[in-house]
């Protein structure tokens, strides 16, 4: 059984204490939330931090609340809490839908939305949903809090806009207008449940059925979670039927650097991403 490289463990009691520890240990430190992304990487020696800063005991970072048309999810909120949230089911059903297909129940009981977002695994599910919904990430560092748009947050494979001494506090979503539908679809790896190809879709229609806004993000198929701008452009301003959606979905991997591995070639992922994207958009359309 693989085991991590030696490290020192630091259980932080407050956000300020966690930030101070990150400042003290610099590049040698990693933040531990639910642990279901970082610990496996450490056991495989893909990540070898000298210091582990555990934020799981910090109170006040696990919540789902709505205020003035914005829903905020605390970074330590678990997938199980997200699955069962009436607020999210009402305003953002794509989020609990996505949470329900992440790994297995044991992982969902411990895994956190903040940990997934900060880890930025290209095959992870939740980053694509955050991107499609145009969420905002609130982080805190030694100079205070700042808000980062999702489009600016996911920088690359396992890389985000978070500074080394920042803690992710919450993810915020503006409640969408009426006639907005959303859906998440993926072709899952049967062993890990990670996305081989996944798509998050959000569409808003006006009174005559014309698409006025679209958010589409691709997971699993490329080296990072990416907004499918070409798909969005092909949807907005049109009345969406199956032919229009299929044409738009055919552009799902435009400009992406696709992954090729034992689970599928680049061409396989290209074709499957188009199929999955079409399915996600059509289901979102049904719900709009």
UniProtKB/TrEMBL annotation:
<dbReference type="InterPro" id="IPR002346">
    <property type="entry name" value="Mopterin_DH_FAD-bd"/>
</dbReference>
<dbReference type="InterPro" id="IPR005107">
    <property type="entry name" value="CO_DH_flav_C"/>
</dbReference>
<dbReference type="InterPro" id="IPR016169">
    <property type="entry name" value="FAD-bd_PCMH_sub2"/>
</dbReference>
<dbReference type="InterPro" id="IPR036683">
    <property type="entry name" value="CO_DH_flav_C_dom_sf"/>
</dbReference>
<dbReference type="InterPro" id="IPR016167">
    <property type="entry name" value="FAD-bd_PCMH_sub1"/>
</dbReference>
<dbReference type="InterPro" id="IPR051312">
    <property type="entry name" value="Diverse_Substr_Oxidored"/>
</dbReference>
<dbReference type="InterPro" id="IPR036318">
    <property type="entry name" value="FAD-bd_PCMH-like_sf"/>
</dbReference>
<feature type="domain" description="FAD-binding PCMH-type">
    <location>
        <begin position="2"/>
        <end position="178"/>
    </location>
</feature>
<keyword id="KW-0274">FAD</keyword>
<dbReference type="Pfam" id="PF00941">
    <property type="entry name" value="FAD_binding_5"/>
</dbReference>
<dbReference type="Pfam" id="PF03450">
    <property type="entry name" value="CO_deh_flav_C"/>
</dbReference>
<dbReference type="InterPro" id="IPR016166">
    <property type="entry name" value="FAD-bd_PCMH"/>
</dbReference>
<dbReference type="GO" id="GO:0016491">
    <property type="term" value="F:oxidoreductase activity"/>
</dbReference>
<protein>
    <submittedName>
        <fullName>Carbon monoxide dehydrogenase</fullName>
    </submittedName>
</protein>
<keyword id="KW-0285">Flavoprotein</keyword>
<keyword id="KW-0560">Oxidoreductase</keyword>
<dbReference type="GO" id="GO:0071949">
    <property type="term" value="F:FAD binding"/>
</dbReference>
